[in-house]
Amino acid sequence: MATEDNVAPEVPRVAKEKTQTLTTEMISHAKEISIFDVAAKNGINLVHDGGDYWSWDQHDSLKVNARKNQFTWNSRQVGGSTIDFMMKVVGVDDFRKAVIALNDSSLSTAKVAMEERQPFEYDIQNSKDFSRARDYLTLARGLNPAIIDQLHQRGFIQQDNKGNTIFVWASDGERVGASIQGTTIDKQHNGPRGTFKQIAKNSEQDYGFNFSIGHPKQLYVFESPIDALSYLSLHPQTRDTMFFAMDGLKPQSVIKAMVYYHTRTGNAPERVGFGVDNDPAGHRFFDEMVNKHSFENAETGETIPYGHFMVDDLAVPTERLRTLQQQAAAANVPWEPLAALDKVETNFHDDKKVNNWFGLKGGFTHSDGSAPGSQYEIRAGQLAGLMGELTDQNGLNYQALITRLDPSLDPTMQQALIGKLQAYTAQYENGGVKPVQYQIKDWNDRLKQVQNESGFPARLIDRIYANKAQEEGLKVIQERDQDGRDRLKAVQANQLNKGLFEADSPQEMAYLIKTYGYSAVDKEDEQKYQHVEGVEHTVSQKQKSSPARQALQAAALARS
User: Measured between alpha carbons, how far is residue 59 from residues 1, 3, 32, 268, 312 in Å?
Assistant: First the structure.
């Protein structure tokens, strides 16, 4: 199975590849090859979002428009034709090789039909019943029920007649688009995320879900509506703020948000805060915004300050931190600049990619990359030694360090890069470092973590849904998988080794049980356990069990 950053390209062998000359016809033909065919041949599974749009199940910010045979990878700010797909997604390293590979006779061409964007019409059939969307948002995603109810009453969140959650895009009282969030968890068809997401047809380009609290003085920008609502659920004291969701990482969406903010308030925001994910894509996006898309206040002439509040931004994987500290101590240098370099260059990722907007490489992405284990330890030691050479009574010479690591780095990037390195170094020196086993990357994960630490999982896991007469029932147990992550499994209370279905979090498990009773909604888990004798009968008999539903409702009310 291909993963987001490790796709093994399937490039047909061409006998005369070294001498074959590219022609205009070859390039044109390469662009006409179906992206879907290329994706299938390279193990990239595309799932249907609805309408013309499909997304990669490993990374839903990569969208393919079937009608135009074009793709956009929002988190990486790349996109284009099938040739670009070969280079940016599959990993063919140059234009010539990509064109030659795409001229293979086994690949089919796509039928492309251009369609003009039509004005948005809200033709979604809203349901009078909001319970399915509410359960998904408040149980599976853990959002504050009071916030959801208020936004529903104001018309910002709806449920359609298929049970999907609709986040309505508002502009001066008009509906100009919508984000559609599925509520059925099916990882077999929707990939690891479990549910489908899409933007309603003809929604205003680069706009997004937004709402305001009080009289806005600041603008907060998030990747998704659920991220925005998760942040607000954790910070209910937030006042005088406009929240805006980009549905991805799109600078043009921020520009539209700024324009709309000014239209609504008559002023520029005092500051813009970015609550994007703490991952390489989020950092690349924020750095690009700071360095390429700044705004000035027309009245004062001052640059509007940008800031970010990424989750766990000062978190460092425990084993990685220990290695950095040990190697720095051996070289007699402080560990903080060494950790800052790893953070800025890779964001503590081992994907062998340059994970920063500046393009810095040569540090922890040296040679074969910052692989875990002994190779990482060796490279950390080498870099600690280099820092020792470049340190004098005035401290580490960051300019010299950058030049030694990456002589080809664009000079215009160096000062901004050095500023970021120094900022993380200072935060680590001031005790800001947070050793963690796993990094939390987004605000919904943080919300669930806070809830779980409050004891909700224990109340849920210890609850048995039983039919006393038959001495059977459902018990929720917690197990640790091979990666060391905790997962929940619903099992028969008297046969704990026989599972019915699984969930990634207590919130998701509560939603599954309340919504589906005893039935195995996760098709993968259903297939996994279908060979267990008696399970199918138990499911069919228990699906209508009212004690299970009543117990779950009681647990949900206790949390509200």
Answer: 13, 9, 24, 34, 21
Residues 291 and 455: their CA atoms lie apart, in Å, by 43
CB 227 within 8 A of CB 441: no
CA distance 34 to 102: 10
CA atoms in the 13 A half-sphere facing the CB of 500 = 29
Q: Say what percent of the chain tops pLDDT 90.
A: 47
Q: Which of 44-53, 76-85, 549-558 is least confident?
A: 549-558
Q: Strand runs (DSSP E) across 115-163, as ranges?
A: 157-159
Rounded Cα–Cα distance for residues 76 and 89 (Å): 10
**Would you call 470 helix, strand, or coil by DSSP?**
coil
Residues 424-444, mean pLDDT to the nearest whole number = 93
What is the pLDDT at residue 241? 98
Q: What is the pLDDT of residues 213-270, one digit of tens each?
A: 999 999 999 999 999 999 999 999 999 999 999 998 889 999 999 999 999 999 999 9
- In the predicted structure, residue 104 carries a pLDDT above the cut 90: no
Q: Is 170 helix (H, G, I), strand (E, B) or coil?
A: strand
Identify the pLDDT of residue 551: 35
Please choose, from the candidates 180, 182, 225, the residue with its C-alpha nearest in 3D space to the C-alpha of residue 203.
Answer: 180
CA distances from 317 to 233, 282, 363, 437 (A): 27, 18, 18, 6
pTM of this prediction? 0.74
Record the tokens describing residue 482, joined without a space. Answer: 């091979």
Q: What angle do CA 347, 229, 137 make, to 5 degrees?
A: 110
DSSP code string of 387-443: HHHTEETTEE-HHHHHHHH-TTS-HHHHHHHHHHHHHHHHHHHTT--EEESS---SH
Cβ atoms of residues 464 and 493 within 8 Å: yes
Strand locations in 146-275 (E): 157-159, 165-171, 174-181, 197-199, 210-213, 218-222, 241-245, 272-274
Dist CA 204 CA 318 (whole Å) = 44
Query: How does 471-486 read in b/e, with b if 16+ C-beta sit within 10 Å?
Result: ebbbbbeeeeeeeeee
The H or E element that residue 228 is part of is helix 225-234
pLDDT at 490: 59
In the Cβ-directed half-sphere of 243, how many Cα atoms lie within 13 Å?
Answer: 27
Closest CA to 518 of 486, 547, 494, 497: 547
Contact (CB, 8 A) for 118 and 69? no
Angle at which helix 95-102 crosses helix 24-32, to 10 degrees, equals 70
Element (H, E) at 337: helix 335-346
Tell me how long the chain is.
Answer: 560
Share of the chain above pLDDT 70, in %: 74
Distances (CA, A) of 393 to 120, 249, 396, 439: 63, 42, 9, 35
Q: What is the DSSP string of 55-100?
A: EETTEEEEEEETTTTEEEEGGGTEEESHHHHIIIII---SHHHHHH
Residue 123 per-residue DSSP state:
-
pLDDT digits (tens, 9 = 90+) for 281-312: 899 999 999 999 999 888 888 999 999 999 99
